Structure prediction request, 314 residues.
Amino acid sequence: MKVLENTELAQFTTIKIGGKADKVCIPSTTSELVNLLDELSSKNEHWSIIGGGSNILISSHGIPGTVICTTSLNWIENLGPDLISAGAGVRLPRLSAYAAKSSLSGMEFFEGIPGTVGGAIIMNAGAHGSSTSQIMETVSVLNLNSGKIEILTPKDINFGYRLSNINPNEKIILEAKFRLVSDTETAIKRRMKEFNFARRSSQPIKDPSAGCTFRNPLELNTPAGKLLDSIGAKNWSIGSANVSSMHANFIINGGNAMSHDVCKLMSKMQETVYQKYNVLLKPEIKPLGVFTKEEAIIWTNADQTEGNSFIITR
Ligand SMILES: Cc1cc2nc3c(=O)[nH]c(=O)nc-3n(C[C@H](O)[C@H](O)[C@H](O)COP(=O)(O)OP(=O)(O)OC[C@H]3O[C@@H](n4cnc5c(N)ncnc54)[C@H](O)[C@@H]3O)c2cc1C
Prediction:
């Protein structure tokens, strides 16, 4: 297992923000991960877990204790005939490319989502009308309360729009199996290309971001990006954190943005939409690390604290 001491966490996130952790542990086998969690729990040490870091805002004040990064749990196995198994840390675009090569369809929508299998199940990642819950057959998790490995099906998980009932503080995703259908490699790759083109023409994929900032509000039929665009949020900026000029639901790190810049900007976006539409946007980005009460208000206001691993001070 790779262990890094006193390490900057910005490099482990797609938005390139995050202070230091005392330790970053990168296990390369499931048993290394299970033993590590056992050791940290027995010592009562604070820890957090990340995958691709593509849906999180890590505090610029850092995270106390150990951060576990799953990206070396990266094996893929074709169990045949239509079943693929993947470790929690496998990157989604790699997995969809593997499925295409195996003439298996269903994962085309993973193309362009820079997360991992673990993060995709926690968030029920989706795009182009498909979501992780539709292709996941089973997921293997370590239940931290019982210390046992459990095999869960979608029915056990209660998937919703960009959410699951798996709380990363209680259950750790080890690996998952996906049920796909046969198709030709050419047809699968053509769909991936189309999805890629649609994404490139609507999202700032080359800029450092954490993806969509807010979930689409279920009470309105209008996506969060459209609401934000209508209040003129594009190009708003605080410090080096900017709302993308291409998509109003993306916050871009313009160079040296800090987590408090992002929080202030999110707060302004949330407040302005609330004033105009009486709808409180719920953050899709999850906070990790130490935040002040004022910064955390974006999540606490929207009742989005459960399953987050953040510490609120003052
Ligand atoms: C440019 C861009 C485009 C994006 N497009 C989309 C899109 O189209 N659709 C979409 O749904 N999302 C999209 N996202 C958001 C993001 O990629 C997904 O939510 C992804 O599934 C997150 O996976 P991750 O591994 O990066 O999770 P992380 O951000 O690392 O973590 C997210 C949460 O999962 C937990 N977690 C991670 N791994 C585990 C594990 N093994 N066990 C338990 N808990 C774990 C973390 O603690 C955290 O709470 C986009 C992001 C970017 C930057």
In short: The chain has a mean pLDDT of 95. The pocket of flavin-adenine dinucleotide is lined by residues 14, 49-56, 70, 88, 113-116, 118-120, 122-123, 125-127, 162, 168, 172-173, 205, 209-211, 286, 309 (CB under 6 Å). The chain is about 30% helix and 30% strand. The domain at 76-200 is CATH 3.30.465.10 (Uridine Diphospho-n-acetylenolpyruvylglucosamine Reductase; domain 3).
